[in-house]
Design a protein that fits this description.
Layout (H helix, E strand, L loop, with lengths): L10 E7 L12 E6 L5 H9 L17 E6 L3 E5 L10 H17 L3 E9 L6 H12 L4 E6 L6 H15 L6 E3 L8 H6 L7
Parallel strand pairs: 2-4, 2-5, 5-6, 6-7
Antiparallel strand pairs: 1-3, 3-4
The structure holds guanosine-5'-diphosphate (GDP) and magnesium ion.
Length: 198
């Protein structure tokens, strides 16, 4: 008997929303991706879905202010949330971001998993810490994804994971090292998707 590994067989773009305009999505389970601008959200989505063009990888950080929705295997919605923590963003926009994230985290009954992306090379910043706090407060299942793992050696990585765990107040095993470049961590991440999402 062979056990089939969870896989994204089909992924397609559904819609872009300009805010949290109450995307209901016919009640399908949702997985959301959050993280700083430029942390590698689009690259992760493309890598998981095996489609290099699905989520546009922008070279210009901070441009995506839209919520992008993708349909996976005709069974679940992958929600690409707007990047945060970009210095040029005004205080007003940051407040909008906070309000929107909290509405989303607390107001989406179909949200089954949060993928919280942080760069493996950097200590999580103020916005990352807020995000982690809100995810916990909303009592949502989450994985902290430490992106761009290819940029560090194995030994450096271990140290980085512990530092991230400490700063965000999560356990090291709640952090998944990931590289969109080498696809390291892809299988492990897909294996963490909740039942019925793939
Ligand atoms: N070395 C490396 N670079 C990456 C990885 N993931 C993303 N990048 C680069 O980081 C930049 C931002 O990536 P992007 O996916 O657009 O980030 P987003 O703003 O969070 O959607 C791009 O130049 C990517 O090529 C990775 O796993 N390894
Ligand atoms: Mg992006």
């Amino acid at each position: 008997m062979t056990i089939e590994r969870p896989r994204i067989k089909t992924a397609r773009f559904i819609t872009s929303l300009t805010g949290n305009q109450g995307f209901e999505g016919q009640g399908l389970p949702q997985i959301a991706v959050a993280g700083k601008s430029n942390v590698g959200k689009s690259s992760l989505i493309n890598c998981l879905c095996g489609n290099h063009k699905l989520a546009r990888i922008s070279q210009e950080p901070g441009k995506t202010r839209l919520v992008n929705v993708f349909l996976l295997n005709d069974r679940s919605h992958l929600i690409d949330l707007p990047g945060y923590g970009f210095a040029r963003v005004s205080r007003g926009m940051q407040e909008d971001w906070g309000r929107m994230m909290n509405e989303f985290l607390n107001g989406s009954p179909h949200l089954k998993l949060m993928l919280h992306l942080v760069d493996i090379r950097h200590e999580p910043g103020e916005h990352d810490q807020l995000m982690a706090k809100w995810i916990r407060a909303a009592n949502l299942p989450f994985v902290v994804v430490a992106t761009k793992a290819d940029k560090l050696s194995k030994a450096q990585r271990q140290r980085a994971i512990f530092a991230i765990a400490r700063t965000l107040g999560v356990q090291p095993w709640e952090i998944q090292p990931f590289s969109a470049q080498t696809r390291e961590g892809k299988e492990e991440l897909l294996a963490r998707f909740p039942e019925g999402c793939l």
